[in-house]
Amino acid sequence: MAISGLGSHSISLFFYVIFATFLHKAQGQNLVTNNVSVVEGETAIISCRVKNNDDSVIQLLNPNRQTIYFRDVRPLKDSRFQLVNFSDNELLVSLSNVSLSDEGRYVCQLYTDPPQEAYADITVLVPPGNPILESREEIVSEGNETEITCTAMGSKPASTIKWIKGDQPLQGEATVEELYDRMFTVTSRLRLTVSKEDDGVAVICIIDHPAVKDFQAQKYLEVQYKPEVQIVVEFPEGLTREGENLELTCKAKGKPQPHQINWLKVDDDFPSHAVITGSDLFIENLNKSYNGTYRCVASNLVGEAYDDYILYVYDVLTTTPPPTTTTINAFQDSRADGAPQKIDHAVIGGIVAVVVFAMLCLLIVLGRYFARHKGTYFTHEAKGADDAADADTAIINAEGGHNNSDDKKEYYI
Ligand SMILES: *[C@@H]1O[C@H](CO)[C@@H](O)[C@H](O)[C@H]1NC(C)=O
Ligand SMILES: *[C@@H]1O[C@H](CO)[C@@H](O)[C@H](O)[C@H]1NC(C)=O
Ligand SMILES: *[C@@H]1O[C@H](CO)[C@@H](O)[C@H](O)[C@H]1NC(C)=O
Ligand SMILES: *[C@@H]1O[C@H](CO)[C@@H](O)[C@H](O)[C@H]1NC(C)=O
Ligand SMILES: *[C@@H]1O[C@H](CO)[C@@H](O)[C@H](O)[C@H]1NC(C)=O
Ligand SMILES: *[C@@H]1O[C@H](CO)[C@@H](O)[C@H](O)[C@H]1NC(C)=O
Fold it and tell me: Which Pfam families match (predicted)?
Protein backbone atom coordinates (compact mmCIF):
# COMPACT_ATOMS: atom_id res chain seq x y z
CA MET A 1 0.00 0.00 0.00
CA ALA A 2 2.61 2.43 1.10
CA ILE A 3 4.85 1.43 -1.80
CA SER A 4 2.13 1.80 -4.47
CA GLY A 5 1.08 5.10 -2.94
CA LEU A 6 4.64 6.31 -3.13
CA GLY A 7 4.79 4.96 -6.72
CA SER A 8 1.76 6.94 -7.94
CA HIS A 9 3.15 10.01 -6.24
CA SER A 10 6.49 9.66 -8.00
CA ILE A 11 4.72 9.05 -11.34
CA SER A 12 2.73 12.29 -11.07
CA LEU A 13 5.92 14.05 -10.05
CA PHE A 14 7.58 12.58 -13.13
CA PHE A 15 4.77 13.92 -15.38
CA TYR A 16 4.98 17.26 -13.68
CA VAL A 17 8.66 17.45 -14.59
CA ILE A 18 7.90 16.44 -18.20
CA PHE A 19 5.08 19.06 -18.42
CA ALA A 20 7.31 21.70 -16.94
CA THR A 21 9.96 21.10 -19.60
CA PHE A 22 7.32 21.47 -22.34
CA LEU A 23 5.77 24.48 -20.68
CA HIS A 24 8.18 26.86 -22.32
CA LYS A 25 7.31 25.49 -25.74
CA ALA A 26 3.56 25.49 -24.95
CA GLN A 27 3.66 29.19 -24.05
CA GLY A 28 4.93 29.94 -27.52
CA GLN A 29 1.64 28.67 -28.92
CA ASN A 30 -1.51 30.63 -28.47
CA LEU A 31 -4.93 29.03 -28.77
CA VAL A 32 -7.73 31.48 -29.45
CA THR A 33 -11.46 31.12 -29.88
CA ASN A 34 -14.47 33.38 -29.37
CA ASN A 35 -17.95 33.31 -27.94
CA VAL A 36 -20.86 32.96 -30.34
CA SER A 37 -24.41 34.30 -30.18
CA VAL A 38 -26.71 32.68 -32.68
CA VAL A 39 -30.41 32.87 -33.37
CA GLU A 40 -32.26 29.60 -33.00
CA GLY A 41 -32.50 27.73 -36.33
CA GLU A 42 -29.53 29.60 -37.81
CA THR A 43 -25.90 28.55 -38.20
CA ALA A 44 -23.13 29.09 -35.67
CA ILE A 45 -19.45 29.20 -36.63
CA ILE A 46 -17.00 27.93 -34.06
CA SER A 47 -13.35 28.67 -34.63
CA CYS A 48 -10.21 27.39 -32.99
CA ARG A 49 -7.11 29.31 -34.06
CA VAL A 50 -3.49 28.75 -33.14
CA LYS A 51 -0.65 31.18 -33.47
CA ASN A 52 2.73 29.54 -34.12
CA ASN A 53 1.48 25.95 -34.31
CA ASP A 54 4.21 23.27 -34.39
CA ASP A 55 1.99 20.56 -35.88
CA SER A 56 0.10 19.96 -32.67
CA VAL A 57 -3.33 18.42 -33.20
CA ILE A 58 -6.40 20.66 -32.83
CA GLN A 59 -9.60 19.20 -31.49
CA LEU A 60 -13.10 20.55 -30.88
CA LEU A 61 -15.23 19.16 -28.07
CA ASN A 62 -18.91 19.72 -27.33
CA PRO A 63 -20.13 20.80 -23.86
CA ASN A 64 -20.28 17.13 -22.84
CA ARG A 65 -16.63 16.86 -23.86
CA GLN A 66 -17.35 14.56 -26.77
CA THR A 67 -15.07 15.13 -29.72
CA ILE A 68 -16.82 16.89 -32.59
CA TYR A 69 -13.74 17.25 -34.77
CA PHE A 70 -10.31 15.74 -34.36
CA ARG A 71 -8.27 17.57 -36.96
CA ASP A 72 -10.53 17.37 -40.05
CA VAL A 73 -12.25 14.16 -38.95
CA ARG A 74 -15.67 14.19 -37.32
CA PRO A 75 -16.20 11.25 -34.96
CA LEU A 76 -19.56 12.70 -33.81
CA LYS A 77 -22.52 11.53 -35.91
CA ASP A 78 -24.29 14.88 -36.04
CA SER A 79 -24.22 16.06 -39.64
CA ARG A 80 -25.20 19.59 -38.55
CA PHE A 81 -21.50 20.02 -37.77
CA GLN A 82 -19.53 20.71 -40.93
CA LEU A 83 -15.93 21.59 -41.55
CA VAL A 84 -15.57 25.06 -42.99
CA ASN A 85 -11.81 25.35 -42.96
CA PHE A 86 -8.97 23.29 -41.70
CA SER A 87 -5.28 24.03 -41.55
CA ASP A 88 -2.45 23.76 -39.04
CA ASN A 89 -3.48 27.07 -37.61
CA GLU A 90 -7.22 26.86 -37.78
CA LEU A 91 -10.18 24.59 -37.23
CA LEU A 92 -13.37 26.27 -38.38
CA VAL A 93 -16.63 24.36 -37.85
CA SER A 94 -20.21 25.33 -38.61
CA LEU A 95 -23.25 24.15 -36.69
CA SER A 96 -26.48 24.55 -38.62
CA ASN A 97 -30.08 24.66 -37.39
CA VAL A 98 -29.00 25.60 -33.89
CA SER A 99 -31.44 24.72 -31.14
CA LEU A 100 -31.59 25.67 -27.48
CA SER A 101 -30.03 22.33 -26.51
CA ASP A 102 -26.85 23.24 -28.43
CA GLU A 103 -26.10 25.97 -25.95
CA GLY A 104 -23.07 25.54 -23.75
CA ARG A 105 -19.32 25.76 -23.47
CA TYR A 106 -17.46 24.24 -26.41
CA VAL A 107 -13.78 23.43 -26.01
CA CYS A 108 -10.91 23.96 -28.40
CA GLN A 109 -8.06 21.73 -27.46
CA LEU A 110 -4.48 21.75 -28.62
CA TYR A 111 -2.48 18.55 -28.10
CA THR A 112 0.56 20.15 -26.63
CA ASP A 113 2.13 19.08 -23.36
CA PRO A 114 0.26 19.98 -21.35
CA PRO A 115 -2.80 20.25 -23.59
CA GLN A 116 -4.12 23.79 -24.00
CA GLU A 117 -7.79 24.63 -23.92
CA ALA A 118 -9.88 27.59 -24.94
CA TYR A 119 -13.61 27.96 -24.42
CA ALA A 120 -16.27 29.15 -26.79
CA ASP A 121 -19.64 29.84 -25.19
CA ILE A 122 -22.50 29.37 -27.63
CA THR A 123 -25.54 31.42 -26.68
CA VAL A 124 -28.75 30.67 -28.50
CA LEU A 125 -31.10 33.61 -28.96
CA VAL A 126 -34.79 33.05 -29.42
CA PRO A 127 -36.63 36.04 -30.89
CA PRO A 128 -39.95 36.97 -29.34
CA GLY A 129 -43.23 36.51 -31.19
CA ASN A 130 -44.86 39.53 -32.82
CA PRO A 131 -45.61 42.18 -30.23
CA ILE A 132 -49.21 42.17 -29.13
CA LEU A 133 -50.68 45.59 -28.38
CA GLU A 134 -53.88 45.85 -26.42
CA SER A 135 -55.67 48.86 -25.02
CA ARG A 136 -58.20 48.88 -22.22
CA GLU A 137 -60.50 51.29 -24.07
CA GLU A 138 -60.86 51.93 -27.75
CA ILE A 139 -61.95 55.53 -27.20
CA VAL A 140 -60.86 57.67 -24.26
CA SER A 141 -62.28 60.95 -23.07
CA GLU A 142 -59.86 63.85 -22.59
CA GLY A 143 -58.46 64.01 -19.07
CA ASN A 144 -59.14 60.33 -18.53
CA GLU A 145 -56.44 57.75 -18.00
CA THR A 146 -56.08 54.82 -20.32
CA GLU A 147 -53.93 51.74 -20.23
CA ILE A 148 -52.14 50.03 -23.11
CA THR A 149 -50.23 46.79 -22.79
CA CYS A 150 -47.61 45.36 -25.08
CA THR A 151 -46.53 41.73 -24.86
CA ALA A 152 -43.42 40.10 -26.27
CA MET A 153 -43.99 36.35 -26.03
CA GLY A 154 -41.37 33.66 -25.50
CA SER A 155 -37.93 35.11 -26.09
CA LYS A 156 -34.44 34.35 -24.88
CA PRO A 157 -33.13 36.45 -23.33
CA ALA A 158 -36.05 38.52 -22.03
CA SER A 159 -37.01 41.41 -24.31
CA THR A 160 -36.99 45.03 -23.26
CA ILE A 161 -40.06 47.02 -24.20
CA LYS A 162 -39.92 50.74 -24.91
CA TRP A 163 -42.76 53.13 -25.59
CA ILE A 164 -43.06 56.19 -27.76
CA LYS A 165 -46.03 58.51 -28.07
CA GLY A 166 -45.68 60.72 -31.11
CA ASP A 167 -41.94 61.29 -30.80
CA GLN A 168 -41.77 61.39 -27.05
CA PRO A 169 -40.45 58.38 -25.09
CA LEU A 170 -42.66 57.12 -22.28
CA GLN A 171 -42.04 54.76 -19.40
CA GLY A 172 -44.07 51.59 -19.05
CA GLU A 173 -44.18 49.14 -16.20
CA ALA A 174 -42.77 45.75 -17.18
CA THR A 175 -43.47 42.32 -15.80
CA VAL A 176 -41.19 39.43 -16.79
CA GLU A 177 -42.43 35.88 -16.67
CA GLU A 178 -40.14 32.89 -17.15
CA LEU A 179 -41.89 30.25 -19.22
CA TYR A 180 -39.33 27.44 -19.14
CA ASP A 181 -35.59 27.02 -19.60
CA ARG A 182 -34.64 30.71 -19.78
CA MET A 183 -37.51 31.61 -22.09
CA PHE A 184 -39.36 34.76 -21.11
CA THR A 185 -42.57 36.58 -21.84
CA VAL A 186 -42.44 40.28 -21.09
CA THR A 187 -45.48 42.50 -20.69
CA SER A 188 -45.23 46.25 -20.41
CA ARG A 189 -48.12 48.30 -19.13
CA LEU A 190 -48.35 51.94 -20.15
CA ARG A 191 -50.72 54.25 -18.33
CA LEU A 192 -51.33 57.66 -19.74
CA THR A 193 -53.73 60.52 -19.24
CA VAL A 194 -54.85 61.78 -22.60
CA SER A 195 -55.55 65.29 -23.81
CA LYS A 196 -57.36 66.29 -26.96
CA GLU A 197 -53.99 66.85 -28.68
CA ASP A 198 -53.41 63.11 -28.35
CA ASP A 199 -56.27 62.29 -30.70
CA GLY A 200 -54.85 60.51 -33.74
CA VAL A 201 -51.34 60.30 -32.23
CA ALA A 202 -49.58 56.94 -32.57
CA VAL A 203 -48.44 55.04 -29.52
CA ILE A 204 -45.63 52.70 -30.47
CA CYS A 205 -44.34 49.71 -28.54
CA ILE A 206 -40.76 48.86 -29.50
CA ILE A 207 -39.25 45.46 -28.73
CA ASP A 208 -35.57 45.58 -27.91
CA HIS A 209 -33.99 42.14 -28.35
CA PRO A 210 -30.63 41.05 -29.81
CA ALA A 211 -32.32 38.65 -32.25
CA VAL A 212 -34.70 41.17 -33.81
CA LYS A 213 -34.54 44.57 -35.47
CA ASP A 214 -37.26 47.17 -35.88
CA PHE A 215 -39.73 45.01 -34.06
CA GLN A 216 -42.68 47.17 -33.07
CA ALA A 217 -46.42 47.55 -32.95
CA GLN A 218 -48.42 50.74 -32.94
CA LYS A 219 -51.85 52.04 -32.27
CA TYR A 220 -53.49 55.39 -32.86
CA LEU A 221 -55.08 57.00 -29.85
CA GLU A 222 -58.68 57.98 -30.20
CA VAL A 223 -59.59 60.77 -27.82
CA GLN A 224 -62.99 62.32 -27.36
CA TYR A 225 -63.12 65.91 -26.25
CA LYS A 226 -65.70 68.53 -25.51
CA PRO A 227 -66.39 71.17 -28.15
CA GLU A 228 -64.25 74.23 -28.74
CA VAL A 229 -66.58 77.12 -29.51
CA GLN A 230 -65.85 80.34 -31.34
CA ILE A 231 -68.21 83.09 -32.44
CA VAL A 232 -67.33 84.73 -35.74
CA VAL A 233 -68.85 88.07 -36.82
CA GLU A 234 -69.95 87.72 -40.44
CA PHE A 235 -71.50 91.17 -40.60
CA PRO A 236 -70.85 94.08 -40.14
CA GLU A 237 -67.13 94.46 -40.65
CA GLY A 238 -66.92 97.69 -38.63
CA LEU A 239 -68.89 99.02 -35.70
CA THR A 240 -72.36 97.75 -34.91
CA ARG A 241 -74.59 100.78 -35.38
CA GLU A 242 -78.23 101.32 -34.74
CA GLY A 243 -80.43 100.27 -37.64
CA GLU A 244 -77.84 97.95 -39.19
CA ASN A 245 -77.98 94.16 -39.36
CA LEU A 246 -75.85 91.76 -37.36
CA GLU A 247 -74.88 88.25 -38.37
CA LEU A 248 -72.94 85.91 -36.12
CA THR A 249 -71.79 82.37 -36.81
CA CYS A 250 -70.98 79.88 -34.10
CA LYS A 251 -68.15 77.53 -34.92
CA ALA A 252 -68.00 74.46 -32.71
CA LYS A 253 -65.60 71.58 -33.11
CA GLY A 254 -65.47 68.57 -30.87
CA LYS A 255 -65.20 64.82 -30.85
CA PRO A 256 -67.79 63.57 -31.39
CA GLN A 257 -69.07 66.60 -33.31
CA PRO A 258 -71.44 68.60 -31.07
CA HIS A 259 -75.01 67.46 -31.59
CA GLN A 260 -76.50 70.68 -30.32
CA ILE A 261 -75.72 74.39 -30.70
CA ASN A 262 -77.80 76.93 -28.77
CA TRP A 263 -77.84 80.70 -28.82
CA LEU A 264 -78.94 82.66 -25.79
CA LYS A 265 -78.63 86.13 -24.34
CA VAL A 266 -77.02 86.24 -20.90
CA ASP A 267 -79.36 87.52 -18.15
CA ASP A 268 -81.81 88.84 -20.70
CA ASP A 269 -84.48 87.95 -23.23
CA PHE A 270 -83.54 87.31 -26.79
CA PRO A 271 -84.64 90.05 -29.23
CA SER A 272 -87.98 88.79 -30.52
CA HIS A 273 -87.15 89.12 -34.20
CA ALA A 274 -83.68 87.56 -34.04
CA VAL A 275 -83.43 84.62 -36.42
CA ILE A 276 -81.43 81.49 -35.68
CA THR A 277 -80.66 79.15 -38.55
CA GLY A 278 -78.44 76.25 -37.60
CA SER A 279 -75.38 77.79 -35.98
CA ASP A 280 -76.07 81.33 -37.32
CA LEU A 281 -77.66 84.22 -35.46
CA PHE A 282 -79.17 87.02 -37.48
CA ILE A 283 -80.53 90.30 -36.05
CA GLU A 284 -82.03 92.90 -38.32
CA ASN A 285 -82.29 96.63 -37.58
CA LEU A 286 -80.12 96.88 -34.46
CA ASN A 287 -81.46 98.86 -31.55
CA LYS A 288 -79.62 100.01 -28.42
CA SER A 289 -81.96 97.90 -26.34
CA TYR A 290 -80.26 94.82 -27.87
CA ASN A 291 -77.04 95.60 -26.03
CA GLY A 292 -75.77 92.66 -24.04
CA THR A 293 -73.87 89.36 -24.08
CA TYR A 294 -74.86 86.79 -26.68
CA ARG A 295 -73.70 83.26 -25.96
CA CYS A 296 -73.36 80.22 -28.18
CA VAL A 297 -73.39 76.93 -26.27
CA ALA A 298 -72.35 73.64 -27.86
CA SER A 299 -72.34 70.25 -26.24
CA ASN A 300 -71.49 66.64 -26.93
CA LEU A 301 -71.39 63.60 -24.67
CA VAL A 302 -68.04 64.67 -23.18
CA GLY A 303 -69.17 68.11 -22.09
CA GLU A 304 -70.36 71.58 -22.88
CA ALA A 305 -68.55 74.76 -23.89
CA TYR A 306 -69.51 78.29 -24.96
CA ASP A 307 -68.22 81.51 -26.42
CA ASP A 308 -69.59 85.01 -25.75
CA TYR A 309 -70.12 87.99 -28.00
CA ILE A 310 -70.76 91.37 -26.38
CA LEU A 311 -73.00 93.53 -28.50
CA TYR A 312 -72.71 97.27 -28.08
CA VAL A 313 -74.91 99.25 -30.38
CA TYR A 314 -73.42 102.58 -31.44
CA ASP A 315 -75.29 105.63 -32.63
CA VAL A 316 -76.39 105.91 -36.22
CA LEU A 317 -73.62 107.09 -38.50
CA THR A 318 -74.14 110.89 -38.98
CA THR A 319 -73.67 112.46 -42.45
CA THR A 320 -71.15 115.11 -41.23
CA PRO A 321 -67.82 113.85 -42.46
CA PRO A 322 -65.37 113.70 -39.58
CA PRO A 323 -62.18 113.52 -41.67
CA THR A 324 -59.95 112.81 -38.73
CA THR A 325 -57.40 111.19 -40.98
CA THR A 326 -57.03 114.27 -43.23
CA THR A 327 -56.53 116.59 -40.25
CA ILE A 328 -53.86 114.32 -38.94
CA ASN A 329 -52.20 114.39 -42.36
CA ALA A 330 -52.38 118.20 -42.50
CA PHE A 331 -50.87 118.46 -39.08
CA GLN A 332 -48.10 116.09 -40.05
CA ASP A 333 -47.44 118.08 -43.26
CA SER A 334 -47.14 121.38 -41.38
CA ARG A 335 -44.80 119.74 -38.99
CA ALA A 336 -42.76 118.38 -41.83
CA ASP A 337 -42.43 121.91 -43.35
CA GLY A 338 -41.88 123.61 -40.00
CA ALA A 339 -39.12 121.43 -38.77
CA PRO A 340 -36.30 122.76 -41.03
CA GLN A 341 -37.35 126.39 -40.31
CA LYS A 342 -37.18 125.73 -36.62
CA ILE A 343 -33.75 124.27 -37.10
CA ASP A 344 -32.63 127.42 -39.03
CA HIS A 345 -33.85 129.69 -36.25
CA ALA A 346 -32.16 127.61 -33.66
CA VAL A 347 -28.87 127.62 -35.58
CA ILE A 348 -28.87 131.38 -36.14
CA GLY A 349 -29.84 132.00 -32.53
CA GLY A 350 -27.06 129.72 -31.36
CA ILE A 351 -24.44 131.43 -33.50
CA VAL A 352 -25.50 134.86 -32.31
CA ALA A 353 -25.38 133.73 -28.70
CA VAL A 354 -21.91 132.26 -29.16
CA VAL A 355 -20.63 135.41 -30.83
CA VAL A 356 -22.08 137.63 -28.10
CA PHE A 357 -20.66 135.37 -25.41
CA ALA A 358 -17.23 135.36 -27.06
CA MET A 359 -17.23 139.16 -27.28
CA LEU A 360 -18.26 139.46 -23.64
CA CYS A 361 -15.48 137.13 -22.63
CA LEU A 362 -12.99 139.14 -24.65
CA LEU A 363 -14.13 142.34 -23.02
CA ILE A 364 -13.79 140.85 -19.55
CA VAL A 365 -10.34 139.47 -20.29
CA LEU A 366 -9.14 142.73 -21.75
CA GLY A 367 -10.63 144.70 -18.87
CA ARG A 368 -8.94 142.47 -16.30
CA TYR A 369 -5.62 142.59 -18.16
CA PHE A 370 -5.47 146.37 -18.17
CA ALA A 371 -6.57 146.62 -14.57
CA ARG A 372 -3.89 144.15 -13.43
CA HIS A 373 -1.12 145.73 -15.46
CA LYS A 374 -1.79 148.98 -13.85
CA GLY A 375 -1.83 147.36 -10.41
CA THR A 376 1.48 145.56 -10.80
CA TYR A 377 3.07 148.71 -12.09
CA PHE A 378 2.08 150.53 -8.94
CA THR A 379 3.33 147.76 -6.64
CA HIS A 380 6.69 147.69 -8.42
CA GLU A 381 7.06 151.34 -8.01
CA ALA A 382 6.36 150.93 -4.34
CA LYS A 383 8.63 147.94 -3.54
CA GLY A 384 11.33 147.65 -6.25
CA ALA A 385 12.00 151.38 -6.82
CA ASP A 386 14.56 151.71 -3.99
CA ASP A 387 17.33 149.49 -5.44
CA ALA A 388 16.53 149.99 -9.14
CA ALA A 389 18.51 152.16 -11.49
CA ASP A 390 15.51 153.19 -13.53
CA ALA A 391 11.82 152.58 -13.77
CA ASP A 392 12.07 149.60 -16.18
CA THR A 393 14.59 147.72 -14.02
CA ALA A 394 12.36 148.38 -11.08
CA ILE A 395 9.47 146.59 -12.85
CA ILE A 396 11.66 143.54 -13.77
CA ASN A 397 13.08 143.30 -10.27
CA ALA A 398 9.64 143.46 -8.80
CA GLU A 399 8.31 140.64 -11.07
CA GLY A 400 11.26 138.22 -10.38
CA GLY A 401 12.71 139.58 -7.16
CA HIS A 402 10.16 138.88 -4.52
CA ASN A 403 8.76 135.65 -6.00
CA ASN A 404 10.26 132.45 -4.52
CA SER A 405 12.93 130.30 -6.22
CA ASP A 406 10.48 127.57 -7.50
CA ASP A 407 8.69 130.09 -9.62
CA LYS A 408 12.01 131.33 -10.93
CA LYS A 409 12.99 127.88 -12.15
CA GLU A 410 9.75 127.46 -13.93
CA TYR A 411 10.26 130.78 -15.57
CA TYR A 412 13.71 129.97 -16.94
CA ILE A 413 12.74 126.54 -18.33
C1 LIG B 1 -17.14 34.26 -23.27
O2 LIG B 1 -18.20 34.51 -22.34
C3 LIG B 1 -17.84 34.21 -20.99
C4 LIG B 1 -19.06 34.44 -20.15
O5 LIG B 1 -20.16 33.76 -20.69
C6 LIG B 1 -16.70 35.11 -20.55
O7 LIG B 1 -16.31 34.80 -19.24
C8 LIG B 1 -15.53 34.92 -21.50
O9 LIG B 1 -14.50 35.82 -21.17
C10 LIG B 1 -15.94 35.12 -22.94
N11 LIG B 1 -14.85 34.82 -23.79
C12 LIG B 1 -14.48 35.60 -24.81
C13 LIG B 1 -13.34 35.13 -25.64
O14 LIG B 1 -15.06 36.66 -25.05
C1 LIG C 1 -9.77 29.24 -44.80
O2 LIG C 1 -8.37 29.34 -44.59
C3 LIG C 1 -7.65 30.02 -45.57
C4 LIG C 1 -6.16 29.92 -45.24
O5 LIG C 1 -5.96 29.88 -43.89
C6 LIG C 1 -8.15 31.43 -45.68
O7 LIG C 1 -7.47 32.11 -46.71
C8 LIG C 1 -9.65 31.43 -45.92
O9 LIG C 1 -10.12 32.76 -45.90
C10 LIG C 1 -10.35 30.63 -44.87
N11 LIG C 1 -11.76 30.54 -45.19
C12 LIG C 1 -12.67 30.88 -44.32
C13 LIG C 1 -14.08 30.71 -44.78
O14 LIG C 1 -12.41 31.33 -43.20
C1 LIG D 1 -34.03 22.00 -37.22
O2 LIG D 1 -34.13 21.39 -35.95
C3 LIG D 1 -35.44 21.10 -35.55
C4 LIG D 1 -35.37 20.47 -34.21
O5 LIG D 1 -34.50 21.19 -33.36
C6 LIG D 1 -36.16 20.21 -36.55
O7 LIG D 1 -37.48 20.03 -36.16
C8 LIG D 1 -36.11 20.85 -37.91
O9 LIG D 1 -36.68 19.98 -38.87
C10 LIG D 1 -34.69 21.18 -38.28
N11 LIG D 1 -34.66 21.85 -39.53
C12 LIG D 1 -33.81 21.63 -40.50
C13 LIG D 1 -33.92 22.45 -41.72
O14 LIG D 1 -33.01 20.71 -40.39
C1 LIG E 1 -85.53 100.67 -30.28
O2 LIG E 1 -86.48 99.95 -29.53
C3 LIG E 1 -87.35 100.74 -28.77
C4 LIG E 1 -88.25 99.82 -28.01
O5 LIG E 1 -87.52 98.81 -27.41
C6 LIG E 1 -88.13 101.63 -29.71
O7 LIG E 1 -88.89 102.48 -28.95
C8 LIG E 1 -87.17 102.43 -30.59
O9 LIG E 1 -87.88 103.17 -31.53
C10 LIG E 1 -86.22 101.54 -31.30
N11 LIG E 1 -85.27 102.34 -32.02
C12 LIG E 1 -84.98 102.12 -33.32
C13 LIG E 1 -84.00 103.04 -33.94
O14 LIG E 1 -85.51 101.24 -33.96
C1 LIG F 1 -63.90 59.10 -18.41
O2 LIG F 1 -64.63 60.22 -18.86
C3 LIG F 1 -66.01 60.09 -18.79
C4 LIG F 1 -66.61 61.35 -19.37
O5 LIG F 1 -66.50 61.33 -20.74
C6 LIG F 1 -66.45 59.85 -17.39
O7 LIG F 1 -67.84 59.68 -17.34
C8 LIG F 1 -65.76 58.65 -16.85
O9 LIG F 1 -66.08 58.47 -15.51
C10 LIG F 1 -64.27 58.74 -17.00
N11 LIG F 1 -63.66 57.52 -16.62
C12 LIG F 1 -62.63 57.46 -15.79
C13 LIG F 1 -62.12 56.10 -15.53
O14 LIG F 1 -62.17 58.43 -15.29
C1 LIG G 1 -76.50 100.45 -25.40
O2 LIG G 1 -75.24 101.02 -25.73
C3 LIG G 1 -75.31 102.42 -26.04
C4 LIG G 1 -73.99 102.89 -26.48
O5 LIG G 1 -73.89 102.77 -27.85
C6 LIG G 1 -75.80 103.18 -24.82
O7 LIG G 1 -75.89 104.55 -25.16
C8 LIG G 1 -77.13 102.63 -24.40
O9 LIG G 1 -77.56 103.23 -23.20
C10 LIG G 1 -77.06 101.13 -24.19
N11 LIG G 1 -78.39 100.64 -23.94
C12 LIG G 1 -78.62 99.73 -23.01
C13 LIG G 1 -80.04 99.32 -22.91
O14 LIG G 1 -77.74 99.30 -22.28
Answer: C2-set_2, Ig_3, V-set
pTM strictly above 0.85? no
Mutate to test the pocket of ligand 1, among 30, 108, 121 (most ligand atoms within 8 A of CB): 121
**What would the pLDDT profile of 230-241 be if each residue is shown by its tens digit?**
999 998 888 899
Ligand 3 atom 14, closest CA = 97
pLDDT in tens, 291-331: 999 999 999 999 999 999 999 999 887 765 444 443 333 33
State the DSSP H helix or E strand holding residue 162, giving kind and residue range, or none if neither.
Answer: strand 160-165
β-sheet with 140-141: strand ranges across? 140-141, 223-235, 246-255, 280-283, 275-277
Report whether the peptide linkage leading into residue 128 is cis, meaning its omega lies within 30 degrees of zero. Answer: no
* Sign of the torsion formed by the C-alpha atoms of 153, 158, 159 and 160: positive
Is ligand 6 within 6 A of the CB of residue 314?
Answer: yes
- Nearest residue (by CA) to ligand 3, atom 1, is 97
Q: pLDDT confidence of 98, banded at 50, 70, 90?
A: very high
Q: Is 373 helix (H, G, I), strand (E, B) or coil?
A: helix
Write the CB contacts of 110 (distance below 8 Å, at least 6 apart in sequence): 29, 31, 48, 50, 53, 56, 57, 58, 59, 116, 117
